[in-house]
Design goal:
Chain B: It is found in: Cell membrane. The structure holds 2 protein chains of 2 kinds. The two termini of chain A are 39 Å apart. Chain A contains 10 helices and 20 strands. In chain A, the strands form 4 sheets. In chain A, strands 6-7-8-3-9-10 form a 6-stranded mixed beta sheet, sandwiched between helices. By secondary structure, chain A is an alpha+beta fold. Chain B has 2 domains: 50 residues, no CATH class; 210 residues, MetI-like (MetI-like fold, Orthogonal Bundle). Chain B starts with 16 loop residues before the first helix and ends in a 15-residue tail after the last helix. The relative contact order of chain B is 0.13. The chains are: A alpha+beta, B mainly alpha.
């Protein structure tokens, strides 16, 4: 067990590509930290620098208080699980798991004891004599985990270990890995591009974009208080709805105009964001999570609730909720962040042109809205997010 | 649906059996005859006691093993044969190992001069070996003066020469194969604590056995059949390889010893055939399947 500290870590490749920029993260002893971001954001590079598989251009990396910048991987007391599992195809499962121990000339009795225990933990007991190619994807994944566990290292490093599994297995292995990590209480750095894995597994989540750390915190904090448009759009599924609105100040209270509608903001909202008043008369990016909107006919609290009027373009009934798509007559937010998010999702609302912004709202299952219905959408204004449309940063103090 | 009991055969729609499949058999048989003819001819010549080129026919009028007894009785063939095996096996094994080590470096490591090294290996291969034969002879004449043990007329000198010759092709061949083995395996072993040599011997070599078998076999065949350089380097009767020695049998008087020559050629083919049979099961791909992904 040990804490891992990345202090102003940089990675610049020989071709000039700056993959990781001034990365500062301190991972506490026994913590499960998830590094998440779109592909090419430098998260894997950062992990490989911790592993010692990639040189550190500048900065200081310490594991357990020891500077490891120039230490080879074998002297860092880490174990890594690869995206491809990297099992040795010519060795049996038992040999695969024991390889790292044999290399370190560990006592044979101790090796078999540890392999036994890891196999039991991961339910690999009856597969120990098999070769990797005789295993299913999930079993291979477990062997890769076993190989890391038996080493009893100070740090686990996992590089998208679940991305080769099918969706159902992924959910199951997600829980198993989290359980194993909890039982062993080993400091773990876990890289993924899947924000659901990040949310469900991490003690803390670090969101990266283009080599730069965007925000780090516990998953709920990231979800509730994103620091910028990128984090807001990346964390959460479906992603946060975002449109340009205009802040209006009148009789001491603030309101925001979204297209044809004007949403009055409660005093607490403005009080929590002193800087918002400074945006009066200007455009801001308004972010609304899908669950913070509700069918007006289901909402309790009468007619004076802030609401949007719109037409339903599509509904997705999920049983526990209905995801309602509609186009809001407010301009789209276009910043560096939204471009990066669209690129990651391989989507863009080109078809909408200037007609507005596509929104998704989660209605209660009792809602009866259908395609083409004219509806009123109630917005929980206490949970609306505001971002600077130029910098993308959250508007707070 | 009028004819209910009619069976429709695949491929019966147009043309006959010959147009569909038969012509391929014909081509195959022609190719077979074309490639088997020389072998049959040599075997029949080796069994033909008359032993001259002009008297050789595909089916000899008389058969016997006189040529074989003559081969071992009157020439140093057994010595030549052993020389050939020694040189063939050693240079095949050594070149296999050296090329594997070179391929490992070229495939796995990034260093200054890697690209230039690869390209020059390829370029050097493009020149026919006999262009260099004069230079090689002069070099080895010098070496013979200084270190007679690895000079002219020694198996060791020739092995050294063959090693250099085979390195280029084999390295390229192997590098291509090494590149197909996921780098994750190396990195995983590295994290597990393995050194470069442990990765090379423990992880990579077991996975490249097919290409080792191929290069080893090719190396052996090439060395056994190599004549030009061996004939220049090996002039002592006792140091000759079988190819050089056998050539000596038919180069002097006109085709007098053709039967004996054929007998030697037949025996010389045996080790290659045996080796191929032995390595055949290794010359299969798919060993790395299951290494990564689900």
């Amino acid at each position: 067990m040990a804490e891992v500290v990345l202090d102003k870590i940089n990675k610049r490749y020989e071709n000039g590509f700056h993959a990781v920029k001034d990365l500062d993260i301190a991972i506490a002893d026994g913590e499960f930290l998830v590094l998440v971001g779109p592909s090419g954001c430098g998260k894997t590079t950062a992990l490989r620098m911790v592993a010692g598989l990639e040189d550190i251009t500048s900065g200081t990396m310490t594991i357990g208080g020891k500077v490891v910048n120039t230490l080879p991987p074998k002297d860092r007391d880490i174990a890594m699980v690869f995206q491809s599992y990297a099992l040795y195809p010519h060795m049996s499962v038992a040999d695969n798991i024991a390889y790292g121990l044999k290399i370190r000339r560990m006592d044979a009795a101790e090796i078999s004891r540890r392999v036994e225990r890891a196999a039991q933990m991961l339910e690999l007991g009856n597969l120990l004599d098999r070769k990797p190619k005789q295993l299913s994807g999930g079993q291979r994944q477990r062997v890769a985990m076993g190989r890391a566990i038996v080493r009893e290292p100070q740090v686990f490093l996992m590089d998208e270990p679940l991305s080769n599994l099918d969706a159902k297995l992924r959910v199951q292995m997600r829980a198993e890995i989290a359980q194993v990590q909890q039982d062993l209480n080993v400091t773990t750095i876990y890289v993924t591009h899947d924000q659901i894995e990040a949310m469900t597994m991490g003690d803390r989540v670090a969101v990266m974009k283009a080599g730069v750390l965007q925000q780090i915190g516990d998953p709920q904090h990231l979800y509730d208080h994103p620091d910028n448009i990128f984090v807001a759009g990346f964390i959460g599924s479906p992603p946060m709805n975002m449109a340009l609105g205009r802040v209006e100040a009148g009789n001491g209270d603030l309101a925001v105009r979204l297209g044809a509608a004007t949403l009055a903001l409660p005093g607490a909202v403005a009080a929590a964001r002193p800087a918002l008043a400074g945006y009066a008369g200007r455009d801001v990016a308004v972010g609304i999570r899908s669950e913070d909107m509700e069918d007006a006919r289901l909402a309790r609290g009468g007619d004076d609730l802030p609401r949007l009027s719109t037409t339903v373009t599509m509904t997705e009934a999920l049983g526990s909720e209905i995801v309602v798509h509609f186009v809001l007559d407010a301009p789209k937010v276009v910043t560096e962040d939204t471009k990066a998010l669209e690129k990651d999702a391989h989507s863009s609302d080109v078809a909408l042109h200037d007609r507005g912004t596509r929104f998704r709202a989660s209605f209660g299952p009792r809602s009866r809205v259908r395609n083409g219905d004219e509806i009123e959408v109630v917005v929980d204004t206490e949970r609306v997010h505001f971002f600077d449309p130029e910098t993308g940063a959250a508007i707070r103090s | 649906m009028t004819a209910t009991n009619e069976v429709v055969r695949l491929g019966s729609a147009k043309g006959g059996w010959f147009r569909q499949f038969g012509w391929r058999h014909l081509v195959g048989l022609l190719a077979l005859a074309f490639s088997l003819f020389p072998i049959l001819f040599v075997i029949s010549a080796s069994l033909n006691p008359l032993g001259t080129l002009s008297s050789s026919t595909l089916i000899p009028p008389d058969t016997g093993l006189e040529n074989f007894t003559k081969l071992f009785g009157t020439t140093s063939f057994s010595r030549w044969f052993l020389n050939t095996l020694l040189i063939g096996v050693l240079s095949a094994v050594l070149s296999m190992f050296i090329s594997a080590a070179a391929a490992f470096a070229f495939s796995r490591h990034r260093f200054k001069g890697r690209r230039i090294g690869l390209v020059s290996l390829l370029l050097v291969q493009m020149f026919p070996q006999f262009l260099a034969i004069v230079a090689l002879y002069l070099i080895f004449a010098e070496i013979t003066d200084l270190y007679p043990a690895i000079g002219l007329n020694t198996a060791w000198g020739l092995i050294l020469l063959y090693l250099g010759g085979a390195l280029g092709v084999n390295t390229w061949l192997m590098k291509g194969f090494f590149d197909t083995i996921p780098k994750d395996l190396d990195e995983s072993a590295k994290v597990d604590g393995a050194t470069h040599s442990q990765i090379f011997f423990g992880i990579i070599l077991p996975l490249v056995v097919p290409i080792l078998a191929v290069t080893g076999l090719l190396g052996f065949i090439n060395t056994v059949n190599e004549f030009l350089i061996a004939s220049v380097f090996l002039t002592d009767d006792s140091s000759k390889t079988a190819a050089v020695g056998l050539y000596g049998l038919i180069s002097g008087e006109r085709n007098a010893n053709f039967g004996v020559f054929s007998a030697g050629a037949v025996i010389l083919a045996i080790p290659t055939v045996v080796l191929f049979q032995f390595l055949q099961r290794y010359i299969v791909g798919g060993l790395t399947s299951g290494a990564v992904k689900g």
